[in-house]
# Entry
Amino acid sequence: MTSPVPFAEGDPVAVQITQPLDRTLDYAAPAGGCVTGSFVEVPLGPRKVVGVVWGGGSGEIDRARLRPVVRALDVAPMRAEMRDFLIRAAGYTLTPMHAMLAMACRSPAFFDSRYMRRVYRRGEGSPDRLTEARKRALAALGDFDGLALTLAELSRAAGVSPSVIKGLVRLGVISEEESPRDLPYPCLDPTRSGYELSQDQALAADDLRRRVCGGEYGTTLLRGVTGSGKTEVYLEAIAECLVRKRQALVLLPEIALTAEFLKRVERRFGGMPAEWHSGLTMTERRRAWRMVGEHGAQLVVGARSALFLPFRDLGLIVVDEEHDTSYKQEDGVSYNARDMAVLRASICSAQVILASATPCLESWVNAETGKYRKLQLSNRFGEVDLPEMRAVDMRGEKLAPSHWVSPTLRDAVRARLDAGEQALLFLNRRGYAPVTVCRACGHQIECDHCDARMVQHRFPDSLVCHRCGESKPLPSSCPSCGAENRLAPVGPGVERLSEEAGELFPDARIEVLSSDLFGSARALRARMEAIAAGEADIIIGTQLVAKGHDFPLLTLVGVIDADLGVHGCDLRAAERTFQLMRQVAGRAGRRNRRGEALLQTWQPEHAVIEAILDGDEENFWRTEAAGRREAGVPPYGRFAGIVLSGTDEKVLFRIGRSLVSGDAPLREIGARVYGPASAPVARIRGRHRVRLLVKAGKSAPLQRALSRWVNRVRLPSGLHLSIDIDPQTFY
Ligand code: ADP
Ligand code: ZN
# Structure
C-alpha cells in the first residue's frame, strides 16, 4: 500500500467535497499540513463544508490566490483503498463522486472534540414528585438500559427540556458524570471454542478458514437450508480473520435480526461487536465510525451502509441472506450492497462469504460458472428433514366472504395449539386492508401524491400510502360521491387477519409482527424474543418474520396467499416467490421438531408453486436460468433503468423521446433502449415518472455508453434523471 502523500502548509491540494459539484476544488494546505485522504473543512462561498484531500492541486489557480483549508479534522485520513473503492463504486453505479463520498462521510465524528464528555444515567435518588416531563425523562433512560446519554441526546429522546434533566440531577435521581468519549469495543477472543461442528460444517469451515488465511480476494457462496448451520460455519471464518488481526464485517438484511445475532457473537467471542444501522443514536454512530477507523473495533455487524465505514484492514465480509432485496438501495445513490461487498473485498484483498438458503439467480450462476466458489451444507443441523410442504387448494375450500383462513389450515393450526406449539400465519401485507372502496360508487381511495391506493390501518385508525408515507384519517363519507358510511375495506392485511384468527381461536394469544407496529428496533427485538420464548400461540407476520429470527416452538407455517407475487410483471417475480416461500417455510420446526408448511393457493399447478412444494431447488434454478438465458436478461444480459421525473408529464415524454432518437452511443455497443413509457407507479410524491429501459449484452461496456448517451441531452430545470444499473424493481 502506498503511503499517503504529505502536503506542507500552503501547498495546493485538490479537495473532493460532498456538495453537488462535478470536480475537485483547489485549496492551500492548512497549518500543520495534511496528507492525501485527510478529512478537511474548507470554505465554499460563505459556508464551510467537509471534504477529503484527493491529491495535489490542479495548479489552475495561482498559488497566492488559493483559499486555505480551514482545518484538518481530527479523524484518521481516508485510506487509499477506500478512495479507490469509492471511485470504482461511483463509476459502476454512475453516481457522481460527491454523492458517493457523502456515503463515506456519514459520521458525526467530525466536529466533536474527543476527550471527555458529560453523560447522564439513572441515579440512586427518587424524585419528590413525578411530573409528566420527569416521567418521560426517566422512561427514556430506561429505554436505553443503563447506557449513558449526553444531555442533548437524553432531552431529545425524552422530548423534555434540558432543565428538566438538570432538575433531576439536583435531586440525585439522575447522575451526571464525566466519561471518556468513544471507548473501544470489548476485545473479542477468537480462540474461544464454538460448538463441535458436524462433518459437513467442519469441512466448510476449514475451507473458509484456509481462504481467510490466504489473505487474498475470493468470493464463496455458502448454501444450506435455514438451520443447516451456515452462521456457525461463517463464525469460524470470522474467528480466523480475527486471529489474523484483520477486521470482519457481517451484513444482515434487517436490523431486527441483530439481537439474536449479537448474542451469538457474544457467546462465541466473549464480547459484543460494533453495530451499524439506522437505529443507532448519534453517540453510538460516532463511536462505531471512529473505532472502526482506529484500533477499537474488530467486528462490525450492520446494514448495507456499513460497507462505507472506514475500515483499517478489512479481511472478511459476510453477506448473510445474500438474496435479500433490502441489500439494494434505490433511493438516492442506487447500489447493491452484495455487489459492492465483492468490489470492496477485491480492492482490499478480503474474502467474501455470501450465505443463503435460496441465493439470487445471479449468485447461483456465478457459482455454477466458477466465478464464485460454492460450499453446500446438506442437512439441517441435528435433523434431516425440511418441513413437510403441502398446497391447500383454495378451489376446494369453503370460505365466508372476507375470510382468508381455510378450514384445512384452521384445523392444522388447532392441532398445533393443542400440542402446545406455535403457528405462524404469513401474509406479506402490512396494515388492515390494502384497499378501501366505496360501496355506493366503487371509488377506491388513492394517495393524493402518488399513483397508489392507500392502505387502511387500525393502529392507529388511518389511511397510509406505502409509497410516500403520507397518512390521513379514514373519512366517514366517500371523497368521490359523498355517500355516508359506505367505505369498506377490501382484502386482507395482517391486522385484519389477526381479527379473523381471534374469531377462530378465541383462547389463543395472537401477536402481529409487522415493521410498522413497533416504535423502535429495540422494541421489536424485545417482542420477538418474548414470542420466541413462548409468549404467543399464533404469530401473524409479514416478511419481517421470514428472515432469521429463530422461534423454537414454531412448528406450523400457514401461507395465506402463496399466489401473491407469482404474477408480478417483474423479471424476478418467480425467483422472489420461491425464495420467500422457502424461507418462510423454513421457520417451522427447527430444533428437532418436524415442521409443516401449508401454502394456500388458487393455482397449485403453477410452475413456481410446484417447484416450491417439490423441493428440487437445483431444478428450479436451472429452469429459471435457462429462461433468462433465452431472453438475454440478467444475469445473461444487463439492464439499466432510467427514470425521468418532474411535474409536467408532456415534458418528460419529450425528453424521453429525444433520448431514444439520440441512442447512437447505445447502438454502438449493441444495446437497445425501450420506452419511454409511464412508470408502473406513474406518480410519486406529486412528481410524474416516465421510464426507459436499456438492455445490453453481458459484457458490453454499458456505463461508458450510458454516460455519453444521457450527457447529450440538456435537461430542463426541475426535471430529474436517475439511472439505476442492474435494477431490481421496475416500478
Ligand atoms: P443457519 O445460519 O444455516 O440458519 P445456524 O448456524 O443458525 O443455521 O444453526 C441453526 C441452529 O443450530 C442454531 O441454533 C445453532 O446454534 C445450532 N447449531 C448449528 N450447528 C451446531 C453445532 N455444530 N452444534 C450445536 N448446535 C449447532
Ligand atoms: Zn403517496
